[in-house]
């Protein structure tokens, strides 16, 4: 599972995501950025679902297909090509799961593509989504505009989930009511603690770094809100303390003291 949230605010779209790529046994393989950023098109693509890692990260597979289709940085061409790409990658995903009957559960082949971009013609931010199994009245693979996209617990009410994350009722479409950095990190921390499900084969899968991506008239900007310090080659432990130079230095000297001030995440 990937933690991805996309919200449209009056003058920008914001995307909150983690960077963990995990194996089926929960081992953390990489903490590289997972979003596909196309700055020239002022567009960002998110991807959730199982994927054959041996074929490379999803963002590389998306970019290579865009190149194969002869699509450059034209926003309209990219949006037109994404449903085709989603169908191709879904077929690869199904084939990968069918190769090992132990992991073959049809729902696990489901993929979700979410897109945030700045629509220059309408001068506004847009959030769109496509699912391999469709949603609401939208057919499979079709890309449709939505109010927002947010990873939650299964069957969770999104409003209640967000309230639980930030500690109050908040409207993420209002930058005064929802601070992208402060409240965005609280939301990612809550998503990091979503209980493991069969979809994640019983392992935590949100980790690496908490990132904020902003898309507006000027382009795309990515920043890191927090590095959780999850070790590569190990399973993600949401309760693991973030490494701290201050704390580790004192413990290395055999002394445990309370820090007189906040230094990072202690």
Question: Would you write up a description of this structure?
Answer:
- With 266 residues, this protein is an alpha+beta fold.
- It contains 5 helices and 12 strands.
- The strands form 3 sheets. The chain has a 5-stranded antiparallel beta sheet with strand order 10-1-2-11-12. It has a 5-stranded antiparallel beta sheet with strand order 5-6-7-8-9, with helices on one face. Strands 3-4 form a two-stranded antiparallel ribbon.
- β7 and β8 (124-131) form a beta hairpin.
- The chain is globular.
- Residues 244-266 have low confidence and may be disordered.
Throw out a few tags for this protein:
alpha+beta; 266 residues; 12 strands; 24% helix; single chain
């Amino acid at each position: 599972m990937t933690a991805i949230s996309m919200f449209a605010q009056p003058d920008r779209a914001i995307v909150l995501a983690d960077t963990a790529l995990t194996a089926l046994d929960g081992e953390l393989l990489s903490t590289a950025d997972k979003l596909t950023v196309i700055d020239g098109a002022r567009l960002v693509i998110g991807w959730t679902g199982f994927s054959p890692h041996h074929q490379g990260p999803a963002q590389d597979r998306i970019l290579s297909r865009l190149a194969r289709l002869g699509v450059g940085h034209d926003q309209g061409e990219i949006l037109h090509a994404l449903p085709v790409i989603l169908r191709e990658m879904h077929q690869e995903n199904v084939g990968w799961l069918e190769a090992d009957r132990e992991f073959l559960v049809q729902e696990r082949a489901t993929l979700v593509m979410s897109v945030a971009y700045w629509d220059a013609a309408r001068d506004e931010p847009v959030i769109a989504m496509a699912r391999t199994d469709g949603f609401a009245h939208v057919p499979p693979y079709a890309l449709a505009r939505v109010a927002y996209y947010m990873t939650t617990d299964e069957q969770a009410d999104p409003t209640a989930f967000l309230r639980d994350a930030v500690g109050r009722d908040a409207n993420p479409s209002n930058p005064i009511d929802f601070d992208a950095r402060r409240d965005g990190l609280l939301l990612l921390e809550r998503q990091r603690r979503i209980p493991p499900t069969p979809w994640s084969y019983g392992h935590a899968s949100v980790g690496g770094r908490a990132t904020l991506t902003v898309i507006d008239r000027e382009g795309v900007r990515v920043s890191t809100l927090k590095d959780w310090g999850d070790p590569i080659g190990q399973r993600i432990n949401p309760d693991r303390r973030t490494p701290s130079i201050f704390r580790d230095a004192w413990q290395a000297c055999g002394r445990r003291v309370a820090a007189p001030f906040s230094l990072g995440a202690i």
